[in-house]
Amino acid sequence: MTEVSAFGQTFDLQSPGIDFLWNDSLWRLKNIYEPTLATQTLAETGVALDIGAGFGAFAVPFAATFPGWKVYCFEPDPHSFAVLCENIARNHLTNVMALPFAIGFEAQDPAVDPAAVRRALADLHQTDAAIDKLRDLLPMRDHSRHRFHVGYMHRGATPADDFEVSAYPTLAAAYLSDLSPRFLKIVAPQAEAAILSDMKGFALDHIVGESWGHVPAHLVYDDCAGLRQTVLPLVGPPLVNLRRSQDLSGREQRLDVVVAMYNSRGFILDCIAGILNGSGSEVHVIVVDDGSTDDAKALVEATYGHDPRVRVLRKPNGGCASARNYGRMHSQASHIAFVDADDIPGRDLYSGLLDLARHTGAELVQGGFEMVFDDGAGGLRVEPSYESDDEMVRNAKRHHFGARTCHLLPSDFLMKGQPTIWRRIYRRDFLENRKIWFPEHIRAFDDQIFQVLTLQAVNNVPVLDGVAYGYRQHPGQDIRQGDERNFYSLEMFRLVLKRGLAEGWERFDTVLASYINTVNWISAKLRPDLYAPFVKGAAELWVYARKSVDEEAFSELPVSLFHPPEFAALVGGFEEKLKRFPNSYAWTYLDSFEMQVPMMKSLRSGT
Hints:
The protein is α/β, with parallel strands linked by helices.
């Protein structure tokens, strides 16, 4: 007999005499059940189901702590069941019923009389005769029991040396609705998803346990009854833990994908089809027509007007940033994504990312991306992105996630790369709490400021393997135009510096490294008449940054990293002019013609 502390009380629990079963059960009690219930409020009365009750490590403390609840414990293993009954009696619990049955997930069985089973459940009370009556009605089903890790059992016969097959009376999960449960604790290796699928119509307010296989998030989110507050970590990787908490925001538990559309008739249908491909009712599309002059809006309405998942909004032309913000303001979803109308998201991308977001609770999650080209024959040619050859991506530790895998990438690594906001989904509360929006006066590179601000606020980003965003390459892309819009990048980084200093960021080195990569990329593709003013403006902003940000941020970022050969001399010239002025945050509030695109256009046109 051992004293066990839980929920602020102490209980006497008889050990099953098996170290693995004892230690494993108490680990869950301390690391899953107690922390979960500490964050949730239970009603005064209710019915709880304990599937895989073992020797009562959860049921006994729970029933004693919440005496208004009736607890039904299901444990098919005869040895564990005997110890469970002893622990219930030893702690003088009258609100617990131990039942020696496994829980299955097939309600239809010609050998079972559903009406008789339901009558037996309705008549259940703590007598051997009542339990025996129900046992006689249930079919025997094979379960594989581990020979060494006694207590670990899963459904079906497993032909392996470490397992032995035993048959137990099995009650289909669907019948448990007759008990009107509000709380579910589940330890049912490899059967969790099937059992929860049978319980989708149950008005469950609380689900807690551990899973040995992938449990799709829609089983606790999509059109489910009850609050479904859930903590269901996957055994092994701490990254994956299906969770759901009570939502007080009033938002709908789904993903809205905002598509900014301007004169995109030739691309938009492929884009929407890609978003919906493999997605269910939890992924919606908001197309924002940003004052198009073609018939793209009418085309979308004619094609998807019957689909409740697709909505089309129209606004006066204001640029991509304003369209994205407009769509977001018309969304009531818990998660959101932003997509370019000329791209082709791959199958299962957004449904898979929503699932990953719910299992990780992360502020943002992402998939891969690939480059899509016209093949010249009316088809498309796909090439992998630069990330496919990156050592950090290839060597990242993979975690099982359903039929796929997932991994973590540092936000610093992603911030230095190409802005790829469209292959990510974001938690709305994260964006709103951090006050991250698209700056509408910037008509290009608004995706870069969004990337920097979101990645600056997190440490690691969960990445789903096996899904990809199709980043279409064509001559009309904004990034291929070597015009004045590229000067928006300077204003964008100036805004980032101002915000970082105002918010007291501790690190700027990654932001500055991203700036170097951007300047190098733009200077290599600009129109010849714009090259000199751009490099001059970039050098001036670099000096302003050096006079504003702590010098340590530049320790591994020498000016030689900039590719334009005249860059170092320009930086030296600006530094000489400003050397007698003290360093100050105020330098980030200064700009020049080169940092303001409207002024650059006016200057170049001579007006």
